[in-house]
Amino acid sequence: MSPSPREVFLRLVHGVADGNFDALPDLYGEVTDVRHPMATPESEPLTSRRALQEHFTVPPEVRQSLPKRRVVDVVVHETADPEVIVAEFAYEFTLPDGAPAKVPCVFVMRVRDGRIIESRDYIDPIRTYTARADLDLLIASLRKDVP
Fold this sequence. Notes:
alpha+beta
């Protein structure tokens, strides 16, 4: 029996939190439609497992510098469509000074036969850049869009 949408979602977010990026593309179908509507700068839809492999490719030297995070405040809402869930959660980071930072997220996900085939991942970009200590990168990306 295939894992439920809830189980697939939990594997995904805990895999991200644990830095287990190599296993994440296998959670997706060969053909997908994954979008990050709040991404800054804007990002293109990820429409294949191959695109997701590239998305989740993190060089070893970068992996070591990623801040520690964990998944908190998980609430999964099931819908009238058994393939679709709406999941609220946050990634809680530990900043270099030891302070915590929360990045709230909402994923609307369609899982068929145990694979994600469609997802809208709403992730707070300002808090994400803050948690990664990359506010300068966010500001630079915003300035590129200014005429």
